[in-house]
Each structure stands twice: as C-alpha cells, then as structure tokens.
Design brief:
Strands 1-2-3-4-5-6-7-8 form an 8-stranded parallel β-barrel, surrounded by 8 helices. The protein has a single domain (3-255), classed as Phosphoenolpyruvate-binding domains (TIM Barrel), CATH 3.20.20.60. With 256 residues, it is of the alpha/beta class. Helix 4 links the parallel strand 3 (69-72) and strand 4. It has 13 helices and 8 strands. Helix content is 51%, strand content 15%.
Length: 256
C-alpha cells in the first residue's frame, strides 16, 4: 500500500492517527519528523510559513519515510486543495468553514465526479501511489480525505449540516479558536470547560453522522486525552514547539 492511501486505511481500520504539525517552511523539518514515530505529518499553510513550493518539496520527503501527509490550506483557498492533492497529499484540512456552502465548495474541489468537481492532473500523486491513471481516478475519492474545521459559534451551530455536505469525510476541531469564539473574545484557553463541552458535542454529532473527526492538541498530554476519547486524527504540538522544548531540555541538562 502506498503512503498516500495509508492515512485512510489506518483510520478506517479503527486505528487513530497521531500527526506531527509543521509550519516551518524548510522541507527537511517535515522530512525529519516523518522519520519519527508519528503516523502522519501535517503541513500548515494557514498560520505556518509553508507555501506551495515548500509543500511540494516536503511531500516526497514525507513519502520517502513511508508516511502520509496532510495539508491545512489557507482560508478560502479551495483551489489549493486540488493542487496539493495532485502533489500526493492524503488529507486536507480547511479552516474557517462557517457555512454549508463553504463545506460544499471545499468538498467539490477535493472529490472527483460524481461527488465533486476536482479536475484531472495528479501527476506527482500517480508516482507516489504507483497507480495507473484509471485506478487512481477510481480510488482517489476514497483515500483522499477532507476535513472541515469547526472552530466558531457559527460552524458549531451548523455542525450537522456541515457533516452532511457532499465530499466531506469529517470535521477537524480547533480548540484555541473555539475558546476565543465561546468566550466572546475575552480570552484564549483551549482547556476551558466550554471548549471541552463543544468538543464532546461535535464528537457525538460526527459519530452519529458516520463521519471522521480530528482535533489539534497543544501538548502530548492533551493528545493522549483525545486519543483516549476515540478521535480519529490528533495533530499534536508543532515543529516550533518541539524545537524549543528540545532546546530547553538540552540547556537545562547542560547547565544543571
């Protein structure tokens, strides 16, 4: 099985995916993290500094480690979804999906007909999957996963309708933005009780709809909690956090 199809296969077989989160634009960083025991690597094109060129360079390095890659695209740039899928991405996360139309439009760029309107051109993806063109066309809608981010009051209130949108495989929760939204902008606390209640609600609705659900965790301890609850995809920390944490640990040991 190719690394591109491995994400869908792992999740649908009942095994959760723990993903590294990369915002540093140097492709070697994603390649290094792919060599660790993460199940996948997510490239952040929304708040991270990763651009299309950087993503295209990182994807072969991640695939060379036998790992699938996901990309969080910039807000509203649904055309970017098609381009990174053509480059061999296994999963997409679209931020700030606040309406059913947002969800429908995102899904249309991710899936080939009859589910969507993705156009043909997966040249790098064909190389990474090893599939003939006809087989890729027949299978891609199944192994290229799409997650709409639920991170506002609007999307939380429409979660059932978003989950029902054609072309969406699931939702991905952003606890930090949820904490800002649920507090009316009064604070940033992804651990607040209201956020946990929102996460539990969204989890229940995703399961009721038979869809996948992912979440971002700021720490390994928080990721462990989410995995214990049964989330399908958990992205943990970030490359910058890991870099600083490693430096601090080494400096503490050296100066002790």
């Amino acid at each position: 099985m190719s690394s591109v199809a491995a994400l869908s296969h792992r999740i649908r077989s009942g095994s959760p995916v723990l993903s590294a989160w990369c915002g540093i634009p140097e492709p070697a960083v994603a390649g290094l993290l792919a060599r660790e025991s993460f199940d996948a690597v997510t490239l952040d094109m929304q708040h991270g500094a990763v651009d299309l060129s950087g993503a295209f360079c990182a994807l072969p390095l991640i695939a060379a480690a036998g790992k699938p890659a996901l990309v969080r695209i910039p807000v509203g740039e649904f055309a970017t979804a098609s381009r990174v899928l053509d480059a061999g991405v296994s999963g997409l996360i679209a931020p700030m999906i606040n309406t059913v139309e947002d969800a429908r439009l995102f899904g249309s760029f991710v899936k080939y007909p009859p589910l969507g309107e993705r156009s043909w051109g997966p040249h790098a993806a064909l190389a990474l999957t090893g599939l003939p063109p006809g087989d890729y066309l027949a299978q891609a809608n199944g192994f290229c996963l799409s997650f709409a981010m639920v991170e506002t009051r609007e999307s939380l209130g429409l979660v059932d309708d978003i989950l029902a949108a054609t072309g969406l495989d699931g939702i991905f929760l952003g606890p930090s933005d949820l904490s800002i939204a649920l507090s009316g902008g009064a604070g940033l606390d992804p651990m607040m009780a209201e956020v946990d209640h929102a996460l539990d609600h969204a989890f229940a609705r995703a399961r009721a709809a038979g869809k996948l659900i992912g979440v971002y965790a700021g720490t390994g301890e928080r990721a462990s909690q989410f995995l214990g609850k049964g989330f399908d995809l958990v992205a943990v920390a970030s490359d910058t956090v890991m870099l600083r944490s490693g430096a601090q640990a080494i400096l503490k040991a050296a100066r002790s």
